[in-house]
Amino acid sequence: MAKIKVIKIGGNIVGDAERLKKFLADFSAMKGDKILVHGGGKLATQLASQLGIEVKMQEGRRITDQETLKIITMVYGGLTNKNIVAHLQNFGCNAIGLSGADANTIKAHKRLVRDIDYGFAGDIDEVNSKTIKGLIELGLTPVFCAISHDRNGQLLNTNADTIAAEVSIAMSQHFQTSLYYVFEETGVLRDVDDKDSVIRDIDQIHYEKLKHDGIIADGMLPKMHNCFQALKNGVDKVCIGNEQMIDDSTEKFTTLTL
Amino acid sequence: MAKIKVIKIGGNIVGDAERLKKFLADFSAMKGDKILVHGGGKLATQLASQLGIEVKMQEGRRITDQETLKIITMVYGGLTNKNIVAHLQNFGCNAIGLSGADANTIKAHKRLVRDIDYGFAGDIDEVNSKTIKGLIELGLTPVFCAISHDRNGQLLNTNADTIAAEVSIAMSQHFQTSLYYVFEETGVLRDVDDKDSVIRDIDQIHYEKLKHDGIIADGMLPKMHNCFQALKNGVDKVCIGNEQMIDDSTEKFTTLTL
Questions:
Q1: What is the SS3 assignment for A55?
Q2: Is residue B244 part of a domain?
Q3: Which residue on chain B is closest to A76 by alpha carbon?
């Protein structure tokens, strides 16, 4: 089975022009089939503030009203995605930028209202792996922004970590798939104040213990949930660390397996 | 040889939500292979004004400075392109939104400075018809916004009429290509004050005469130039009219041939 790597980058890289360029050069140099997924929170928040649009948060999550969705579509789908693609082209990587509406790659539904109305936030129903595979067979490298659609004409703001996990799961029907979460730390840390305390390998039993002991907590929990969801649904390997892990210039990152 | 239709829509449709939706339904219903190219001037001007960015024009043409390019990338590449794609998906058309950077479909260079510095305006060097054909063979309908790139990481604002003409020329290597310019009039008018005075057929000799007689003048001249450029370079037929021509609900439009 052919191999593919799915790499997710977050706002800390996307929002830093020099760091992003360096990352994209390294990403372009990676051999083999690959997919990039990017978030991009900070630029959207900046534009919202310039336009005098209030950012509504509830329990740490952004509420996507109509105006916020417009901003996300402009920044994630336009400014960030197209500039990433243009830079990848410069580095010789034949990238194609995609929202989940493009080629119907990611179909979702508007999150159901229970206690909180998240607005135009999407929960993913289906990733169209056949079409994504078709693009890859044309020699293209898909670059996803954090937007899906409901197939009824509505775009939906969708968590980039979740998109990366769901795309990886879908691609594992056709490829041996590795998922890389690039974030601000060198890996999952045993001690948040000690950057050298990276836990190198975590399996599910180990994870339960780390959760129980309070070592993995707060913001890491949804990310870890995405990781194990991916592993349980066909993804071969999930790695968490900073961008150095993708060009093999470090061995310091966390590898998750079942 | 298989047939393909390239349809270009301008700001008058893109900026009118209801009219756009109706057009996209009709576009989706069109049988056979097709490509959509859209402009979208008004929304970009609105956003620029909201952000307090001055729109710089010289001899009726927009000067694309760095800030203007950002707005164009957000509006054309993001908001407009992704919403068009989402609506087409709703109507059962498997659309894929593209800038010229995506899949390196349209390579251009920054317009050389002679008398006027147009800033980040692109003049097209090459349309990658092989990749576009590959996307069509995957069952996809390409939807181009008016942005190209220079393959050195720079996005470039590019006239949508010219993109439509150059894409048509490139596709005519693989398809019998018809190019449709949808605009505000029912066709090329003999008398601008008489909407019924559509000239049904224009060939090159006829065109020279109409120009000489001052019947075709001003803003129509660059559009007509694009049309005949397309015809001289392999495009089979060019039609100019309003959106009714694409669903065959009118016979009132102008057809250009060599």
A1: coil
A2: no
A3: B78
DSSP B191: S
Residues in chain B within 8 Å Cβ distance of A98: 96
B215-244 pLDDT per residue, tens: 998 888 888 999 999 999 999 999 999 999
Residue B218 lies in a domain: no
User: The domain containing residue A62 runs over which residues?
Assistant: 3-256
Compare CB distances from B50 to A51, A75, A94 and report the shortest one's residue: A51
The answer to whether the Cβ–Cβ distance between B95 and A102 falls below 8 Å is yes
Residue B226 lies in a domain: no
The reply to whether residue A96 touches residue B102, judged by beta carbons under 8 angstroms, is: yes
SS3 content of chain A, % helix, strand, coil (to 5): 40, 25, 35
Closest by CA position to B2, among listed B32, B35, B26: B32
Tell me which chain A residues have a C-beta less than 8 angstroms from the C-beta of B101.
82, 85-86, 89, 95, 97
Who among B50, B75, B140 is closest to A103 (CB)?
A: B140
Distance, CA of A169 to CA of A146 (rounded, Å): 16
> Tell me, what DSSP letter sits at residue B119?
B
Give the three-state DSSP class for B162.
helix
Q: How far is A211 from chain B (nearest CA, A)?
A: 40
Q: Which of A78, A89, A103 has the CB atom closest to B77's CB atom?
A: A78
ipTM of the complex: 0.96
Question: Digits of tens for pLDDT over chain A (258 positions)?
Answer: 899 999 999 988 999 999 999 999 999 999 999 999 998 768 898 999 999 998 888 776 779 999 999 999 999 999 999 999 999 999 999 999 999 999 999 999 999 998 889 999 999 999 999 999 999 999 999 999 999 999 999 999 999 999 999 999 999 999 999 999 999 899 999 998 998 999 999 999 999 999 999 999 888 888 899 999 999 999 999 999 999 999 888 889 999 999
- Interchain CB distance below 8 Å, A101 and B97: yes
- Where residue B41 sits, what CATH number does that domain have? 3.40.1160.10
Q: Provide the 8-state DSSP code for B104.
A: G
Say what the alpha-carbon torsion angle A48, A52, A57, A60 is, to the nearest 10 degrees: 50
- Give percent above pLDDT 90 in chain B: 84
Do A74 and B70 count as a contact with CB atoms less than 8 A apart? no
B77 with A73: Cβ contact below 8 A: no
Q: Pick from B77, B203, B85: which is nearest to B135 by CA?
A: B85
Contact criterion met (CB < 8 Å) for B79 and A70? yes
Q: How many domains is chain A partitioned into structurally?
A: 1
